[in-house]
Design goal:
heterodimer; A: about 120 residues; alpha/beta; Rossmann fold; 5 helices; B: about 575 residues; Arc Repressor Mutant, subunit A; Glutaredoxin; 5 domains; about 45% helix
Chain lengths: ~120, ~575
């Protein structure tokens, strides 16, 4: 059973995503900050990471993605963010600065999220 | 204006457009050059410029009328003499200089002599606060001007400076250097090291160092660079904010001149990290004399392949820097106003978000950093994050360059760690008798002796480096008045609280001066100040009443019984 790490400082979003994933047979681990995300990544060894951008600092997601890829470049990262709506910022994946495997805007429909998760896990 | 004149103007404009580019962002340098040619910007010149650029003449006049260095009504004199009117020069005796100049030339400030030789103007902060009163004549600066020196300056102007004893550049006075100013790093060393690192590693090193913006706001540099680096866009920009307009700040003037290579290394490292191909140094109009030195430094770097294509042999790293001159607008020190100015508009701050890191110059990702920030970044890359963050406090890492002026024995430039107590700083500068210290310039806070134990750090009293000392005899009401006059003049006028509020506060200070302000009205003014703080659009508007409010808080009894009140006429006393 694939394990998915959700890193996001939005408690409600984390519980909703966790519900969607567990009810579809995935194991989950959660973290609410960049540091906790890194700790859980090491301890839980997830198969996929769902990652927010703006947490304690506005660039936490990018910084964590860079650190995670240094630890394990094969673990896929799906960046989930509403940063575009909040700040008007427009980002895209980039192997150096935004080393994520896919990029999705919040809010995201459960079916679409599951589709993306399965796709990244190679299911 | 005859047809032939219009043709001549058009030809000049076309030449300038070839030199500066054909888009709107070329408007400011084009107007600056046209003013150089005509002595001012006549209507016909503005109309033809508008026509050539495909914009409405009102747009051009709007820009020209915004900046204090543009003249649209009358021709300026061959020599424009600008006397600094901000607080440090005021304390140093600017009034005597002003009187001497008016007497010598037979005109008042704001006027031009009939022979067209001289224009007298007041200006705000020339960045010479430790060596005031300061005077600028066209692009030359003069320090420690007294009545006799004012006469000599005018005499030298009449001789076109042919036999002038005055130095071309007034040297900066560094009183205390530390790890930053005594860095011992050779030019290009930092850049070479950076280009051998992955881009994300450069930003990670800056993050580890804890470097926060040295302009005063203290935003973490790494976050700015990371967000701009991650932003989508083929065109990205690096901007050096060299619009050092905060009264009492003069450290960037020294850094620009003495540490040019390190600054340019820092900008180039920033460009590499975020993926920018173009950079600007937005140099304040008052530092015009420095332009030729900076241009030469840029040209030397192009020759050495440190700017231009394939920098230091790194394929696909192309970056060049252009100098753009400000034109006497304090608000352009605010990064979004600066970007507006670079784009050729009035320097009016933008709403945020979106932020410049994503939507900056011409809508492209842009980092705007202070001169000192770029220098610190270059040093951090060379010497490592630990070298930098071993100084300072937990939340304000590193050393900081301070500009100390006012009533102290040793005004000048000092390097101290963040977290230094105000009392320690005063001891170093010979200002232990001070009754108040203005920290952070006109937009900062004025603290009294009871608070001298406090520290200068972003978590206590933040500062871009301006420290103005007020001695035991300083008239705090006059200090408040000087700062408010500054803001009334420098408010961009875009939002109501700042535009309308500051003149009201100034009126209040004038009532206090006459001894005609009740405590009730003073309390109303305090409320108005607090409203300006919360309701203004930009950081500068929000901080404009800070000095007034802190002076009211700390020196209430003094300002309610001003010195001048003792000199009131009987009539005026009755009116109280």
């Amino acid at each position: 059973m694939a394990k998915i790490l959700i890193v996001d400082d939005d408690i409600d979003f984390v519980s909703a995503v966790k519900l969607v994933l567990t009810s579809n047979g995935f194991d989950t681990a959660v973290a609410y900050s960049r540091q906790e995300g890194m700790d859980k990544f090491v301890s839980e060894k997830p198969d996929l990471v769902l990652l927010d951008v703006m947490m304690d600092e506005p660039d936490d997601g990018f910084v964590l993605a860079q650190s995670l890829k240094k630890k394990s470049k094969d673990t896929p990262i799906l960046m989930l963010t509403s940063v575009g709506q909040v700040t008007g910022m427009d980002f895209d994946k980039d192997s150096e600065m935004v080393p994520v495997d896919d990029f999705e805007q919040k809010p995201i429909m459960p079916n679409h999220l599951l589709e993306k998760v399965n796709q990244l896990l190679g299911n | 204006m005859q047809i032939i004149d219009r043709q001549k103007i058009n030809n000049q404009i076309e030449d300038l457009r070839k030199k500066y580019g054909e888009d709107r962002s070329a408007l400011m340098p084009i107007l600056q050059d046209l003013q150089e040619i005509y002595g001012y910007l006549p209507d016909v010149v503005m109309q033809e410029t508008a026509h050539a650029m495909g914009i409405h003449p009102v747009e051009v006049e709007g820009v020209a009328s915004f900046y204090s260095f543009f003249r649209t009504k009358e021709k300026q004199g061959k020599y424009v003499i600008r006397l600094c009117q901000t607080i440090s020069c005021d304390l140093a005796g600017k009034q005597n200089v002003a009187r001497q100049m008016e007497n010598e030339l037979g005109i008042k400030f704001g006027e031009t002599t009939k022979d067209g030789m001289f224009t007298l103007e007041y200006t705000n902060c020339l960045g010479m606060c430790d060596q005031g009163p300061a005077v600028m004549v066209n692009d030359r600066l003069f320090a420690k001007v007294d009545a006799e020196k004012a006469f000599r300056i005018i005499t030298d102007c009449r001789r076109d400076f042919l036999k002038s004893d005055f130095p071309e550049v007034v040297p900066s006075d560094v009183k205390k250097a530390g790890p930053i100013l005594d860095h011992g790093i050779k030019p290009v060393e930092s850049l070479k090291k950076a280009l051998a690192m992955p881009r994300s590693e450069i930003i990670a090193t800056i993050r580890e160092s804890g470097l926060k913006g040295r302009g005063g706001a203290g935003f973490p540099t790494a976050i700015k660079w990371q967000l701009a680096g991650a932003a989508k866009g083929d065109k990205k920009y690096v901007v050096c904010n060299a619009d050092e307009g905060e009264p009492g700040t003069f450290k960037d003037r020294m850094l620009l001149y003495e540490e040019t290579d390190l600054l340019l290394d820092g900008m180039t490292i920033g460009a590499y990290a975020v993926g920018a191909k173009k950079g600007f140094i937005y140099l304040r109009g008052e530092y015009l004399y420095m332009r030729k030195y900076l241009e030469k430094a840029l040209e030397d770097r192009r020759t050495q392949k440190l700017l231009g294509g394939n920098i230091l042999g790194y394929k696909e790293f192309n970056f060049d820097i252009e100098i753009r001159m400000g034109a006497g607008a304090y608000v352009c020190g605010e990064e979004t106003a600066l970007i507006e100015s670079l784009e050729g508009y009035r320097g009016e701050p933008r709403n945020r978000p979106p932020f410049p890191v994503d939507t900056g110059f011409q809508g492209n990702p842009t980092i705007v950093n202070n001169v000192e920030t770029f220098i610190d970044a270059a040093l951090i890359i060379s010497k490592g994050a630990d070298w930098f963050n071993e100084h300072g406090t937990d939340k304000s890492k590193g050393m900081k360059i301070f500009s100390i002026s006012g009533d102290c024995e040793l005004p000048g430039i000092y390097e101290f760690p963040f977290g230094i107590k105000v009392s320690e700083l005063l001891k170093e500068a010979g200002g232990i008798n001070a009754k108040a210290v203005q920290i952070g310039g006109a937009s900062g806070h004025c603290i009294a002796r009871k608070d001298f134990h406090r520290t200068i750090a972003f978590e206590d009293i933040g500062s871009g480096g301006s420290i103005i000392v007020f001695g035991p005899d300083a008239d705090m009401l006059q200090v408040a008045k000087n700062f408010l006059e500054f803001f009334v003049e420098e408010s961009c006028g875009q939002c109501t609280p700042c535009r309308e509020g500051n003149p009201k506060l100034l009126e209040g200070v004038e009532l206090l001066e006459k001894g005609r302000c009740s405590v009730t009205y003073l309390n109303e003014l305090k409320k108005l100040g607090e409203t300006i703080q919360v309701a203004s659009k930009c950081g500068l508007g929000q901080s404009s009443p800070n000095a007034f409010l802190s002076i009211v808080e700390n020196f209430k009894s003094e300002i309610l019984s001003p010195a001048v009140a003792g000199k009131l006429t009987k009539e005026e006393q009755y009116a109280r």
